[in-house]
Amino acid sequence: MEILAISGSIRTGSFNSALLDAMSILSPGNIKITLFDSIACTPTFNPEIDEDNLPEAVKSLISNIRKSDAIIIASPEYAHGITGVLKNMLDWLVASDALVLKPIMVTSVSTSGLGGVRSYSALVQILTAMNSNVVIEGSLCVPFAAGKFDDTLRLTDEITKERIKVSLKALERIVNHNNV
Questions:
Q1: Which domains does the chain have, with CATH numbers?
Q2: Which of 29, 11, 16 is nearest to 109 (CA)?
Q3: Is this prediction's pTM over 0.90?
Q4: How many CB atoms lie within 10 A of CB 108?
Q5: Using an 8 Å Cβ cutoff, are 117 and 43 in contact?
Q6: Ramachandran region, residue 101 (left: φ > 0; alpha: ψ -120 to 50; beta: rest)
Q7: pLDDT of the chain, 180 residues: tens digit per residue
C-alpha cells in the first residue's frame, strides 16, 4: 500500500512532520509512506488558471496523490484552523478529482492539551466538502507534543506509537475494502 504523507507545516522542527516520520518508521512492511515535501513550492492559488495550465508543482502534487492508495495529512493549528500553506494546497485540489473518495487520515500534533483538535476539525470539514473519504477511526490528535518527542524530534511516547499502529491499520482496512 502506497501512502502519501503531507505535513501542513513548513517549519523546521515541526512536531507534525516528526509524527509523519514516526509513522513511516512504525509502518508495517506492506505499507510505504512517502513524505510530500514540496508544499512550500506550491504557488499561491489562482482560480483563473485552468487545468491545462496548472503550475508544475501542482501537477506533481496531483500526480503523487493519484498514484497513492491513501493520504495522511498532518496539520498544526494556527488561529484555531489549518495553516495557510495547507489551505493553499487544498485550494488547488478543489477543481481536481484527485481527492474524491481518496482515503485520508487526518492528524494534528500540538503542544497544548487539546492536541490540535480545532485544526483537525477544520481540516475534516474542508476534506468532506471536497468529497474525500476521511478515515475518522484512523485519525489522530496528539496533545502535549513536547513531552512525546526527544530533542531530535524522534517519537519516544509508547502510547502514541501504539496509536499510530492502530491508525495505520484502520487506514489499511479502508483501502483494502475499497479495492475489493
A1: 2-178 (3.40.50.360)
A2: 16
A3: yes
A4: 30
A5: no
A6: left
A7: 999 999 999 999 999 999 999 999 999 999 999 999 889 999 999 999 988 899 999 999 999 999 999 999 999 988 889 999 999 999 999 989 999 999 999 999 999 988 889 999 999 999 999 999 999 999 999 999 999 999 999 999 999 999 999 999 999 999 999 876
